UniProtKB/TrEMBL annotation:
Residues 155-331 form the 3-keto-alpha-glucoside-1,2-lyase/3-keto-2-hydroxy-glucal hydratase domain. This is 3-keto-alpha-glucoside-1,2-lyase/3-keto-2-hydroxy-glucal hydratase domain-containing protein. Gene3D superfamilies: Exo-inulinase, domain 1 (2.60.120.560). GO terms for molecular function: hydrolase activity. Residues 1-22 form the signal peptide. Pfam families: 3keto-disac_hyd. The keyword Signal applies. InterPro entries: AL/BT2_dom. It comes from Gimesia fumaroli. Keywords: Signal.
Length: 356
Protein backbone atom coordinates (compact mmCIF):
# COMPACT_ATOMS: atom_id res chain seq x y z
CA UNK A 1 0.00 0.00 0.00
CA UNK A 2 2.97 2.34 0.46
CA UNK A 3 6.23 3.44 -0.98
CA UNK A 4 8.85 2.82 1.73
CA UNK A 5 12.15 4.64 2.07
CA UNK A 6 14.74 3.72 4.68
CA UNK A 7 15.95 6.84 6.49
CA UNK A 8 19.68 7.32 6.86
CA UNK A 9 21.54 10.23 8.42
CA UNK A 10 19.42 13.36 8.76
CA UNK A 11 20.63 16.36 6.75
CA UNK A 12 23.09 18.47 8.70
CA UNK A 13 21.22 21.71 8.12
CA UNK A 14 18.11 20.23 9.73
CA UNK A 15 19.89 19.20 12.94
CA UNK A 16 20.58 22.75 14.00
CA UNK A 17 18.13 24.83 16.00
CA UNK A 18 16.71 27.32 13.54
CA UNK A 19 16.61 31.03 14.21
CA UNK A 20 12.83 30.71 14.22
CA UNK A 21 12.95 28.22 17.09
CA UNK A 22 15.47 30.31 18.97
CA UNK A 23 13.19 33.32 18.79
CA UNK A 24 9.96 31.42 19.51
CA UNK A 25 8.37 31.75 22.88
CA UNK A 26 9.06 28.55 24.78
CA UNK A 27 6.02 26.29 24.69
CA UNK A 28 4.10 28.49 22.23
CA UNK A 29 1.29 26.21 21.04
CA UNK A 30 0.68 28.37 17.98
CA UNK A 31 4.28 28.12 16.78
CA UNK A 32 4.31 26.25 13.45
CA UNK A 33 7.16 25.25 11.12
CA UNK A 34 6.48 24.81 7.40
CA UNK A 35 10.07 24.44 6.16
CA UNK A 36 12.13 21.38 7.07
CA UNK A 37 15.21 23.62 7.11
CA UNK A 38 13.79 25.38 10.16
CA UNK A 39 13.00 22.40 12.39
CA UNK A 40 14.54 21.83 15.82
CA UNK A 41 16.88 19.03 16.94
CA UNK A 42 13.91 16.92 18.07
CA UNK A 43 12.48 16.61 14.58
CA UNK A 44 15.01 14.02 13.39
CA UNK A 45 13.84 11.57 16.09
CA UNK A 46 10.16 11.93 15.28
CA UNK A 47 8.76 9.44 12.79
CA UNK A 48 8.14 5.76 12.11
CA UNK A 49 10.40 2.78 12.87
CA UNK A 50 10.08 -0.89 12.00
CA UNK A 51 11.97 -4.11 12.73
CA UNK A 52 11.88 -7.44 14.55
CA UNK A 53 12.49 -8.23 18.19
CA UNK A 54 13.55 -11.58 19.62
CA UNK A 55 12.10 -14.30 21.80
CA UNK A 56 12.91 -12.43 25.02
CA UNK A 57 9.97 -10.13 24.29
CA UNK A 58 7.41 -11.00 26.98
CA UNK A 59 4.75 -8.99 25.20
CA UNK A 60 4.61 -10.86 21.93
CA UNK A 61 7.52 -13.28 21.60
CA UNK A 62 9.52 -13.11 18.37
CA UNK A 63 7.64 -10.63 16.21
CA UNK A 64 7.68 -7.60 14.01
CA UNK A 65 7.27 -4.30 15.80
CA UNK A 66 6.29 -0.83 14.68
CA UNK A 67 7.16 2.37 16.56
CA UNK A 68 5.81 5.90 16.11
CA UNK A 69 7.73 8.68 17.89
CA UNK A 70 6.09 12.07 18.46
CA UNK A 71 7.99 15.23 19.43
CA UNK A 72 6.36 17.39 22.14
CA UNK A 73 8.91 20.20 22.31
CA UNK A 74 12.00 20.91 24.43
CA UNK A 75 13.30 17.35 24.18
CA UNK A 76 10.07 15.71 25.37
CA UNK A 77 8.45 12.85 23.46
CA UNK A 78 5.64 10.33 23.47
CA UNK A 79 5.55 7.15 21.39
CA UNK A 80 3.43 4.13 20.48
CA UNK A 81 4.54 0.53 19.92
CA UNK A 82 2.49 -1.70 17.58
CA UNK A 83 2.60 -5.49 17.51
CA UNK A 84 3.13 -6.84 13.98
CA UNK A 85 4.19 -3.60 12.31
CA UNK A 86 2.94 -0.10 11.64
CA UNK A 87 -0.71 0.96 11.20
CA UNK A 88 -1.72 -0.09 7.70
CA UNK A 89 1.49 -2.11 7.35
CA UNK A 90 1.26 -5.20 9.50
CA UNK A 91 -0.17 -3.96 12.80
CA UNK A 92 -2.48 -6.69 14.12
CA UNK A 93 -4.87 -4.16 15.73
CA UNK A 94 -4.00 -5.31 19.25
CA UNK A 95 -3.64 -2.63 21.92
CA UNK A 96 -0.78 -0.25 21.21
CA UNK A 97 1.70 0.36 23.99
CA UNK A 98 2.36 3.97 24.99
CA UNK A 99 5.79 5.24 26.01
CA UNK A 100 7.13 8.59 27.21
CA UNK A 101 10.63 9.97 27.35
CA UNK A 102 13.14 12.76 26.92
CA UNK A 103 16.20 13.41 24.82
CA UNK A 104 19.52 13.69 26.67
CA UNK A 105 22.09 14.98 24.22
CA UNK A 106 21.88 12.86 21.09
CA UNK A 107 20.02 9.90 22.66
CA UNK A 108 16.25 9.76 23.13
CA UNK A 109 15.11 7.28 25.80
CA UNK A 110 11.49 6.12 25.87
CA UNK A 111 10.07 3.83 28.54
CA UNK A 112 6.94 2.14 29.84
CA UNK A 113 6.34 -0.74 32.25
CA UNK A 114 7.87 -3.32 29.89
CA UNK A 115 10.27 -1.66 27.46
CA UNK A 116 13.08 0.82 27.19
CA UNK A 117 13.67 2.15 23.69
CA UNK A 118 16.74 4.22 22.82
CA UNK A 119 16.51 6.23 19.62
CA UNK A 120 19.72 7.58 18.13
CA UNK A 121 20.63 9.87 15.23
CA UNK A 122 20.76 8.07 11.92
CA UNK A 123 17.39 6.34 12.31
CA UNK A 124 18.18 3.49 14.72
CA UNK A 125 15.99 2.50 17.69
CA UNK A 126 17.16 -0.23 20.08
CA UNK A 127 14.44 -2.06 22.03
CA UNK A 128 15.40 -3.46 25.45
CA UNK A 129 13.57 -4.96 28.38
CA UNK A 130 13.72 -3.20 31.74
CA UNK A 131 16.75 -5.31 32.70
CA UNK A 132 18.67 -3.85 29.78
CA UNK A 133 18.64 -6.96 27.58
CA UNK A 134 18.65 -6.06 23.90
CA UNK A 135 15.53 -7.47 22.20
CA UNK A 136 16.03 -6.05 18.73
CA UNK A 137 16.65 -3.04 16.55
CA UNK A 138 14.19 -0.93 14.57
CA UNK A 139 15.05 1.19 11.53
CA UNK A 140 13.42 4.47 10.59
CA UNK A 141 11.28 4.56 7.47
CA UNK A 142 9.50 7.28 5.53
CA UNK A 143 6.22 6.00 4.10
CA UNK A 144 4.35 7.67 1.27
CA UNK A 145 0.82 7.04 0.06
CA UNK A 146 0.33 4.95 -3.06
CA UNK A 147 -2.16 7.60 -4.25
CA UNK A 148 0.29 10.49 -3.83
CA UNK A 149 0.45 12.39 -7.10
CA UNK A 150 -2.64 10.61 -8.46
CA UNK A 151 -3.56 11.99 -11.86
CA UNK A 152 -7.15 13.06 -12.53
CA UNK A 153 -9.11 10.49 -14.55
CA UNK A 154 -10.99 11.30 -17.72
CA UNK A 155 -13.91 13.59 -16.98
CA UNK A 156 -12.45 14.97 -13.76
CA UNK A 157 -12.27 18.67 -12.97
CA UNK A 158 -8.84 19.80 -11.79
CA UNK A 159 -9.62 22.12 -8.90
CA UNK A 160 -6.05 23.00 -7.96
CA UNK A 161 -2.71 22.23 -9.61
CA UNK A 162 -0.73 25.19 -8.30
CA UNK A 163 -1.39 27.45 -11.27
CA UNK A 164 -4.56 29.28 -10.18
CA UNK A 165 -7.35 29.45 -7.63
CA UNK A 166 -10.10 30.04 -10.17
CA UNK A 167 -12.24 27.28 -8.64
CA UNK A 168 -12.02 28.70 -5.12
CA UNK A 169 -13.63 31.61 -3.33
CA UNK A 170 -10.94 33.84 -1.79
CA UNK A 171 -8.32 31.15 -2.46
CA UNK A 172 -4.68 32.03 -1.84
CA UNK A 173 -1.50 30.43 -3.23
CA UNK A 174 1.81 30.38 -1.36
CA UNK A 175 5.17 31.11 -2.98
CA UNK A 176 5.64 27.33 -3.23
CA UNK A 177 2.49 27.04 -5.34
CA UNK A 178 0.41 25.48 -2.56
CA UNK A 179 -3.16 26.26 -1.58
CA UNK A 180 -3.75 27.82 1.82
CA UNK A 181 -6.48 26.69 4.20
CA UNK A 182 -9.58 28.86 4.66
CA UNK A 183 -11.32 28.67 1.30
CA UNK A 184 -14.24 26.95 -0.40
CA UNK A 185 -15.21 25.82 -3.88
CA UNK A 186 -17.26 28.12 -6.07
CA UNK A 187 -19.21 25.19 -7.56
CA UNK A 188 -21.33 22.71 -5.61
CA UNK A 189 -21.49 18.95 -6.01
CA UNK A 190 -24.06 16.39 -4.93
CA UNK A 191 -22.19 13.08 -5.23
CA UNK A 192 -18.55 12.87 -6.24
CA UNK A 193 -15.10 11.31 -6.08
CA UNK A 194 -12.37 13.60 -4.80
CA UNK A 195 -8.59 13.49 -4.40
CA UNK A 196 -6.83 15.88 -2.02
CA UNK A 197 -3.20 16.07 -0.87
CA UNK A 198 -2.32 17.95 2.33
CA UNK A 199 0.70 18.73 4.48
CA UNK A 200 0.57 19.39 8.21
CA UNK A 201 2.95 21.90 9.79
CA UNK A 202 5.34 20.84 12.55
CA UNK A 203 3.85 22.15 15.82
CA UNK A 204 5.67 20.29 18.63
CA UNK A 205 4.30 22.38 21.48
CA UNK A 206 0.65 22.10 20.40
CA UNK A 207 -1.72 19.35 21.51
CA UNK A 208 -5.24 18.20 20.70
CA UNK A 209 -7.32 20.42 18.43
CA UNK A 210 -4.58 23.07 18.42
CA UNK A 211 -2.12 20.80 16.57
CA UNK A 212 -2.26 21.45 12.79
CA UNK A 213 -6.04 21.64 12.56
CA UNK A 214 -8.07 21.96 9.38
CA UNK A 215 -10.76 19.86 7.75
CA UNK A 216 -12.65 19.01 4.57
CA UNK A 217 -16.29 20.04 4.97
CA UNK A 218 -18.23 18.13 2.32
CA UNK A 219 -21.33 20.10 1.28
CA UNK A 220 -20.29 22.39 4.17
CA UNK A 221 -22.00 19.77 6.38
CA UNK A 222 -19.80 16.73 6.91
CA UNK A 223 -16.23 17.18 8.13
CA UNK A 224 -13.41 14.76 7.44
CA UNK A 225 -10.99 16.00 10.08
CA UNK A 226 -7.48 17.15 9.22
CA UNK A 227 -5.23 17.20 12.30
CA UNK A 228 -1.76 16.14 13.41
CA UNK A 229 -2.81 12.93 15.15
CA UNK A 230 0.37 11.04 14.28
CA UNK A 231 1.12 8.37 16.88
CA UNK A 232 -2.15 8.84 18.76
CA UNK A 233 -5.18 6.61 19.27
CA UNK A 234 -7.16 8.12 16.41
CA UNK A 235 -10.52 9.06 17.93
CA UNK A 236 -13.57 10.78 16.44
CA UNK A 237 -12.10 14.29 16.49
CA UNK A 238 -8.64 13.30 15.20
CA UNK A 239 -7.23 12.98 11.69
CA UNK A 240 -9.45 10.97 9.37
CA UNK A 241 -12.39 11.04 11.78
CA UNK A 242 -15.87 12.09 10.75
CA UNK A 243 -15.80 14.84 13.32
CA UNK A 244 -17.26 13.62 16.64
CA UNK A 245 -19.36 11.01 14.81
CA UNK A 246 -17.04 8.16 13.79
CA UNK A 247 -13.34 7.52 14.30
CA UNK A 248 -11.21 6.23 11.45
CA UNK A 249 -10.98 2.43 11.30
CA UNK A 250 -7.21 2.87 11.63
CA UNK A 251 -5.19 5.99 12.38
CA UNK A 252 -3.21 6.47 9.17
CA UNK A 253 -1.86 9.93 9.96
CA UNK A 254 1.76 10.38 8.83
CA UNK A 255 4.22 12.66 10.67
CA UNK A 256 3.97 16.44 10.10
CA UNK A 257 5.72 17.87 7.01
CA UNK A 258 4.87 14.65 5.13
CA UNK A 259 2.51 14.86 2.18
CA UNK A 260 -0.68 12.89 2.82
CA UNK A 261 -3.71 11.93 0.74
CA UNK A 262 -7.45 11.68 1.09
CA UNK A 263 -9.40 9.83 -1.60
CA UNK A 264 -13.09 10.29 -0.93
CA UNK A 265 -16.26 8.90 -2.46
CA UNK A 266 -19.37 10.75 -1.27
CA UNK A 267 -23.00 9.83 -1.95
CA UNK A 268 -25.41 12.63 -1.11
CA UNK A 269 -28.41 12.03 1.16
CA UNK A 270 -31.82 11.87 -0.42
CA UNK A 271 -34.90 13.92 0.52
CA UNK A 272 -38.59 13.67 -0.36
CA UNK A 273 -40.67 16.46 -1.86
CA UNK A 274 -41.30 17.90 1.61
CA UNK A 275 -37.58 18.09 2.38
CA UNK A 276 -37.62 15.11 4.77
CA UNK A 277 -34.50 12.94 4.64
CA UNK A 278 -35.27 9.45 3.35
CA UNK A 279 -31.73 8.16 2.92
CA UNK A 280 -28.49 9.03 4.73
CA UNK A 281 -25.35 10.23 3.00
CA UNK A 282 -22.71 7.55 2.48
CA UNK A 283 -18.95 8.00 2.46
CA UNK A 284 -15.81 6.01 1.76
CA UNK A 285 -12.40 7.48 2.61
CA UNK A 286 -8.91 6.23 1.90
CA UNK A 287 -6.27 7.96 4.04
CA UNK A 288 -2.80 7.51 2.57
CA UNK A 289 -4.18 4.69 0.44
CA UNK A 290 -5.77 2.72 3.30
CA UNK A 291 -9.57 2.47 3.78
CA UNK A 292 -10.56 4.21 7.00
CA UNK A 293 -14.31 4.51 6.28
CA UNK A 294 -16.09 2.07 3.94
CA UNK A 295 -19.60 2.88 2.77
CA UNK A 296 -20.37 4.48 6.11
CA UNK A 297 -23.87 5.88 6.59
CA UNK A 298 -23.51 9.43 7.92
CA UNK A 299 -26.36 9.85 10.38
CA UNK A 300 -26.29 13.66 10.65
CA UNK A 301 -24.18 16.74 10.01
CA UNK A 302 -20.92 16.83 11.93
CA UNK A 303 -19.64 19.46 14.37
CA UNK A 304 -20.24 22.99 13.16
CA UNK A 305 -21.50 21.92 9.73
CA UNK A 306 -24.66 23.26 8.16
CA UNK A 307 -27.89 21.43 8.89
CA UNK A 308 -28.81 18.68 6.45
CA UNK A 309 -31.19 19.50 3.64
CA UNK A 310 -31.68 19.21 -0.14
CA UNK A 311 -29.93 22.51 -0.82
CA UNK A 312 -26.32 22.16 -1.97
CA UNK A 313 -23.44 24.03 -0.37
CA UNK A 314 -19.75 24.12 -1.34
CA UNK A 315 -16.88 21.94 -0.12
CA UNK A 316 -14.74 23.89 2.37
CA UNK A 317 -11.11 23.70 3.42
CA UNK A 318 -11.43 24.79 7.01
CA UNK A 319 -9.37 27.61 8.51
CA UNK A 320 -8.54 26.75 12.12
CA UNK A 321 -5.66 29.27 12.40
CA UNK A 322 -3.04 26.61 11.56
CA UNK A 323 -1.04 26.76 8.29
CA UNK A 324 -2.13 23.49 6.64
CA UNK A 325 -1.28 23.35 2.93
CA UNK A 326 -3.01 21.59 0.02
CA UNK A 327 -2.14 20.53 -3.51
CA UNK A 328 -3.27 18.25 -6.37
CA UNK A 329 -7.01 18.53 -5.82
CA UNK A 330 -9.41 17.11 -8.38
CA UNK A 331 -13.01 15.96 -8.41
CA UNK A 332 -15.27 13.74 -10.50
CA UNK A 333 -18.91 14.83 -10.46
CA UNK A 334 -21.10 11.73 -10.00
CA UNK A 335 -24.35 13.50 -9.25
CA UNK A 336 -26.08 11.89 -12.24
CA UNK A 337 -24.25 8.57 -12.01
CA UNK A 338 -24.77 5.37 -9.96
CA UNK A 339 -23.62 5.75 -6.37
CA UNK A 340 -19.81 5.60 -5.95
CA UNK A 341 -18.36 3.03 -3.59
CA UNK A 342 -15.13 1.41 -2.49
CA UNK A 343 -14.13 -1.25 -5.02
CA UNK A 344 -13.10 -4.65 -3.67
CA UNK A 345 -10.66 -6.34 -3.88
CA UNK A 346 -8.31 -3.69 -5.32
CA UNK A 347 -8.08 -1.82 -1.97
CA UNK A 348 -6.67 1.28 -3.60
CA UNK A 349 -9.37 2.65 -5.91
CA UNK A 350 -12.78 4.25 -5.70
CA UNK A 351 -15.17 3.31 -8.45
CA UNK A 352 -18.80 3.55 -9.55
CA UNK A 353 -21.51 1.22 -8.26
CA UNK A 354 -23.64 -0.41 -10.93
CA UNK A 355 -26.51 -1.41 -8.68
CA UNK A 356 -27.83 1.97 -7.56
Amino acid sequence: MFRLALIGLFCANCLLSSEAFAQAKKGDKKFAVLDIKQVDEDFQYQGEYYGRIGVDCSWCGECALGLQVVARGDGKFIASLYNGGLPGNGWDRSDRQELTGTRDGIVLTLTNEEFRVQVMPGGIAEVRDLHGHLLGQLNKYQRSSITLGAKPPQGATVLFDGSSVDHFKNGKITEEGLLKEGTELKDTYRSFRMHVEFRLPYMPYATGQARSNSGLYLQSRYEVQVLDSFGLEGVENECGGLYKQKRADVNMCFPPLSWQTYDIAFVAPKFDADGKKIKNAFITVLHNGVPIHQDYSIVAKTGGGKQEGPELFPIKLQDHSNPVRFRNIWIVDLSDQPDPTYCHPCQSLLCDRSDN
